[in-house]
Amino acid sequence: MVRLKNDDSAYVGRYLAVVADGMGGHAGGNVASASTVLDLVHLDRGAQDDEPLTVLADEIQAANSLLSELVTTSPQLSGMGTTVTALLLHGNRLAFAHIGDSRAYRLKNGVFEQISIDHTFVQRLIDEGRLRPEEAEIHPHKNVLMRVLGDVDASPELDLASFEVEPGEKWLLCSDGLTAVLRDSDIENILRGTSDLQRCVDTLVELTLSGGSPDNVTVAVLEIEEVPDDSPTAGIPVSPPADATGDDPAAAPLTGQDPGNPEADDDEPARAELIRQDLSSRPHILVGAASLATETGQIPIVTKRSAERRAARLLTHKAPPEAASAGSELSGTPPRRRWVVPAFLALLAVLLAAVLWVGYTWTQTRYYVGSSDSNVAIYNGVSQSLGPITLSSVTELTDIPLDSLPEYQRNRVEGTIPAKDLLHAEQIVEDLRGAARITGCGPSAPAAPVKASATPAPTATPAPSPTASAGSAASARPGAAPDECGGQN
Q1: 189-199: per-residue pLDDT in tens?
Q2: What backbone torsions phi and psi does residue 295 show, to the nearest 5 degrees?
Q3: Count of other CB atoms within 10 angstroms of residue 361
Q4: pLDDT tens across 60-100, in order?
Q5: Closest by alpha carbon to 87, among 8, 210, 169, 148?
Q6: 78 in Cβ contact with 145 (< 8 Å)
Q7: CB hemisphere CA count around 431 (13 angstroms)
Q8: Angle between the 268-279 and 289-296 helix axes, to the nearest 10 degrees?
Q9: Is 223 helix (H, G, I), strand (E, B) or coil?
């Protein structure tokens, strides 16, 4: 079976291999796979800015964001998605990232095994012991995917792993069009028995098509080879992936002219040319929907911000000097983007300083009554502090001792009494001064009224002298004069 539209895309270079199987039918499966693969090709270089597995995962997540933006600008693409299975070589380590049901197989030290796990409904049933593997082939929902890239999940869950590689080991990446027809044992026999990578790919595709594949089939076979660091072919030797459309991958031109799509935006030819320049700077094979998009110049249309981000990333990371110059003329965005982050941080610092200053100024309009040096005091500010910074200061220190206040009032002062303004604070102090006088322990409390208050009114019945009992009570407190506090405490 040969489909008129190929939803698969694949890229194989010296350090990067990717297979993506788009879904969404006529709505945009080819757009999803092409956009994702073309957004990852800049990783095909020997050195990365961070740990390779982290870089690969981050870039796939960024590609997922691009798909969401595509749907925003073109609602007719809603529901599109794509699988992704990718390998990124760095030194003697191979970073692996996977989502969906495209597969990765490895043949190493004579052991053939499937490295990826299908993110399908039937695979989940198998993992839970509710379905046998042989039953999965005839299950009515065997093609239902549980995880893909697309506009349905802002942060899709990827399977990530890192492997140590050895010269001579082989890897095979494929879309599910291959595994829908050929068994793992068939794939293993051909991979073991065919030393030529191109012939291996051709054989697998021919067997799949002759077996009546119901889907596009894309296969990428690569072998790890140890070569001198200065060799132009150091890294992963490539073999063209093949797809079920019958096109010759090797015939795909990388410098074809843009035919001029009247519905495309003005930036589309520039983006296409920029990607062509980047691809032409390294040995690689690009097939499927991604190859067609690059040939025709009909790169998936995204928002201007996404196009600028992609162009900046291409120019920053891997374009040769002459390509970088041309790209700058086409987009004009990278020089402007250099100051965006510093300017944003500076603006943020200014705003933060302004907020702090306004907040501090407001605190200096507040007043409260508290204690200082065991006396009542009026404070300007608030009773809180920011680390070592105190947000209040003593405005007026009164002559009212805390010990002269009733227990209730003393506790209020120690916990601070808020005031509306300075006048209100002074009124609170006057009220406290009156409370201190009533107790007879205030700074200006007269002695005569206190002694008079200690003498009870005469009664008809003779009683012991109240003055003597008051003096006895006073003498029970060391250091207190017989006439202090009037014996009413």
Answers
A1: 999 999 999 99
A2: -65, -50
A3: 9
A4: 999 998 888 888 888 888 888 999 999 999 999 999 999 99
A5: 169
A6: no
A7: 12
A8: 120
A9: strand
